[in-house]
Every structure is written in structure tokens, then in C-alpha cells.
Design brief:
The chain has 241 residues and is of the alpha/beta class. The protein has seven helices and ten strands. The chain has a seven-stranded parallel beta sheet with strand order 1-10-9-6-2-3-5. A three-stranded antiparallel beta sheet has the order 4-8-7, with no helix packed on it. 42% of the residues are buried. The structure holds 2-amino-2-deoxy-6-O-phosphono-alpha-D-glucopyranose. The site of 2-amino-2-deoxy-6-O-phosphono-alpha-D-glucopyranose (GLP) has 14 residues, from α5.
């Protein structure tokens, strides 16, 4: 596990955006796994700016979405699909054909998604945020290390922290998410945590291994797991370990 402790939030955001851009510059047909959440919004804005400035061709890259709420109408403004359209697809001038979203409206959607990942040759770089309860994607506490893409019931803590992202009262209580084992199959993982609200979970992440109560700890066994932190998220850890 590599930890990059940044001097500012902006530096952390740019570091993550640069990693994605470098991956695509080196291998234009890279497969990138995307995460949503407030943490990732500025990363995608930075990626749009960096790719524009460097005139990087993103047209051969392919993007897999990590998770999606269940029960929302297609293209609901609070869906992750809509988020990706607003923060990634449009600003980066990409095509719909470059994206795969968890098929939440199809029966057997989880199986199909696993199949699509396999057919695409797997994910080269998976972006990840972290929930205050240690969830990754929507793998809530209690998730197993060998879990695959599946339907997950969201915890009260997750519902509470995501509530402000909903434009109306309709808050789904279930989601379809890549599993932990699915995520671990990506060739590299990049997790970003920013802000004081993540300080406790980052401390827990660094002090525990394979803890089902904090699924992010499973990722530490990945040979290419990079954790990028801003000063607030790193404020409760002692890196002299
Ligand atoms: C969401 C997503 C995760 C995300 C996490 C943190 O519910 N399913 O992929 O990493 O919660 O979100 P935020 O960055 O808004 O704190």
C-alpha cells in the first residue's frame, strides 16, 4: 500500500486526476473504474482541465461505473449515471459508448456486469472514495472479501450521509455494487479521501487488516493500492509506522 499525503486538498485532487491522465496517455485504450461522491467531483473537474491543457486523446478509453442505486427511474438526477454524465461524460467530451453502468433495470444485472468486465479485459485503474463507515463502492460493513457484484442493502449511516445529494425525497435503500473481490481484480486501485469527516475512518483503515466492519481494509492486500490523503483526512494518523 502506498500512501500519498498531500499538503492541500487541491494537491490531492490533482494527484489523483494526474494518475488517471497518465494511465490513459501511456495506454489510450485503458479501462478506468469510476467512483461517485462529493470527493470525486473536483477530481473529474481537474481531469477535464488537465486533459484539455495537455490535449490528451480520451476517445479510446473505456469507463466502468462502480455502483448504482436500485429503484431510481432511468436518468434520475440523483442517479450515479446522471452524476457521471454531468461530471465526466460531458465535460470530458466522451461518448456514451465509452461507458458501462451497472444494469440496474435488467434481471440478472449483476451477472451481466461481471461478464462485461471480463470481456473488457478487466479494469486497469479503479478510482475509489471511502464512506465514513468504511464502505467502498457500496460494500457496506459486513461485506465479505470474496464478494462479487450484487444487490446491497444500504446502512442508515450511508443513507444519512448521502441524503443531501438527493433532489427530492426519493432515497433508495438498495444499490448494485461491484463486490470486494471484483474491485480487487483491478490492476491498480487509487483511493482518495479528503476532509475531516474521513479522518476517523482513515485512521481505522491504517490500523486494521481484513476487517469486515470496515471493508476498505480488504483493499490493503492489493499489490498496487494507492491511498491519497489531504491534510484533514490524514489528521488522525501517524505516518511514522
Ligand atoms: C458513496 C459511493 C462511494 C463513495 C462514498 C463516499 O455512497 N457509493 O463510491 O466513495 O459514498 O462519498 P463522498 O465522497 O461523497 O464522501
Amino acid at each position: 500500500m502506498r500512501i500519498i499525503q498531500c499538503d492541500s486538498k487541491e494537491q490531492a485532487i490533482n494527484a489523483v486526476a494526474s494518475m488517471v491522465l497518465e494511465k490513459i496517455s501511456a495506454h489510450p485504450a485503458s479501462v478506468i473504474g469510476l467512483a461517485t461522491g462529493r470527493t470525486m467531483e473536483p477530481v473529474y473537474a481537474s481531469l477535464a482541465k488537465l486533459s484539455r491543457d495537455s490535449e490528451t486523446d480520451l476517445s479510446r478509453a473505456f469507463f466502468f461505473m462502480l455502483d448504482e442505486y436500485l429503484g431510481l427511474p432511468e436518468d434520475h438526477p440523483s442517479s450515479f449515471k446522471h452524476y457521471i454524465k454531468t461530471h465526466v461524460l460531458e465535460p470530458l467530451h466522451l461518448n456514451n459508448s465509452q461507458f458501462a453502468f451497472p444494469p440496474v433495470h435488467a434481471p440478472e444485472g449483476a451477472l451481466h456486469y461481471e461478464q462485461s468486465l471480463k470481456e473488457a479485459g478487466g479494469v486497469d485503474l479503479q478510482l475509489l472514495g471511502i464512506g465514513t463507515n468504511g464502505h467502498v463502492g457500496f460494500n457496506e460493513p459486513g461485506s465479505l472479501k470474496n464478494s462479487r457484484t450484487r444487490k446491497i442493502e444500504l446502512t442508515e449511516e450511508t443513507l444519512k450521509s448521502n441524503r443531501d445529494q438527493f433532489v427530492d425525497e426519493l432515497i433508495p435503500t438498495e444499490a448494485l455494487s461491484m463486490g470486494i473481490e471484483t474491485i480487487l481484480e483491478a490492476r491498480s486501485l487509487v483511493m482518495l479521501a479528503t476532509g475531516k469527516s474521513k479522518a476517523d475512518v482513515i485512521k481505522h483503515l491504517l490500523n486494521h487488516h481484513d476487517d469486515p466492519n470496515c471493508p476498505a481494509t480488504y483493499l490493503k492486500s492489493h499489490p498496487h493500492f494507492t491511498l491519497v490523503l489531504d491534510p484533514d483526512a490524514a489528521s488522525k494518523i501517524n505516518l511514522n509506522i
